[in-house]
Amino acid sequence: MLVLRLLVLCAFLTVINAPSVKALTLLRDPDIEYALKQLAAPVLKAAGLSPTRIDILVIDDRRLNAFVVDSNSIFIHSGLLLKMKNAAMLQSVLAHEAAHIANGHLVRRPVAARNARTAAGLGAILAAAAAVAAGGSEAAGAVALGAQNTARRLFLVHTRAEENSADNSGMRYLARAGIDPQGAVDVIDIFRGQEALSAARQDPYARTHPLSSDRYRLVKRLADGYKDKARPNPQADYWFTRAKGKLSAFQRSPKWTLTRAGETGYADVKLMRQAVAHHRNTNLKKALTAIDGAIGQRPKDPFLHELRGQILIESRQTKAAVAAYARAANLAPKNALILGAYGRSLLVSGQTRKAQQFLEQARARDGRDARVLRDLAAAHAKQGNNGMASLVTAERYAMQGRLKDAGIHAQRASDLLPRGSGGWQRAQDVLFAAQAARKRK
């Protein structure tokens, strides 16, 4: 299990009859997601899209891929993020995916899933993505979606015409944003020759984004034409380094991180990476010294205080963790992941009512966090609200694809909650989904 307090959200529907396909999971970390938002903002603005509306979400998969399935989210594999060498490369990927949204490539697809901002919609998306990325049974992916056509045709895979359109638009967005277009050439260089490989050996990106020598020549020609538009952007360089640095600190060995922590060139990022490595080595004293050093460099950075809270709560220093998370929440009162973490620490400390308050706020801002639902159910149960505890548990199981368990808890909630109330209605929704799943079997 990843030590990173990246909150893991399981796929809603596991691909059926495809044992070689594993459901994808999301890595949720407020620092990394904020950094990716900063990198995406100029690209999205150039595309005429709202940076506040579109989320950049990281999937825990070391293979290389990025994709969109609706107009609200861009998904990027952790492996691709770690493969990128600079901000321009990552921004070129984001520009390409933004172009698929802006050019309406998704509107023409009858996707059999709800919006990715909902738990069920997100789960269906991850299940389909797992099927396509694995190169396995297309029919299995379609069953997971509850669709009649194949997952590949419904989801993810773009035509060559769409790819050429996205390349043209994406390169234009980079130019408008003043981002070095050579980054796009460097990304395509990674995947050149993939089409000559068997499907089992291809990176998922090559399967979902058809590659060709013509595409490479087009991108190279556009990059040459736009290269005079590039402008230095120290902020983009910083946030790219920080996102990649934190992710690698949790996914690589502590020894690897400690020997390379200073390569970033940023003192606070170096200290943050050292803090993660020492924490993973269970050296609390060194971890706190490092994270406090980083906070000394950026005292009003909510994400460094959040990391301090994580280190403390995972080291069973509950009181100090609550204080760290409180500081983070005060600095970032609208960040759902920080609010959820603060609520969790309050719950552990026995402050149940206050915990519920912050957990409810977190859920209202981002309903895709299964861990918040688990904690919220515990808060309801501790206060004797068994009907609401069963309801939230049912919703969490539904999010994770455990529809049989979801149905059991939804029925319990339905029996306990006042008939016709909002909670009772939510329980009926889960019961309907569970019953529909049984009928499909």
From TrEMBL:
Keyword Transit peptide: no
Gene Ontology molecular function terms on file: metal ion binding; metalloendopeptidase activity
Domain of life, per lineage: Bacteria
Annotated GO CC locations: membrane
BP terms from Gene Ontology: proteolysis involved in protein catabolic process
Keyword Manganese attributed: no
Domain Peptidase M48: 36-220
Cofactor(s) in the UniProt record: Zn(2+)
Pfam family, one: Peptidase_M48
Coiled coil: none
PANTHER family found in the cross-reference section: METALLOENDOPEPTIDASE OMA1, METALLOENDOPEPTIDASE OMA1, MITOCHONDRIAL
Protein name according to UniProt: TPR repeat-containing protein YfgC
Organism of origin: Roseovarius aestuarii
Gene: yfgC
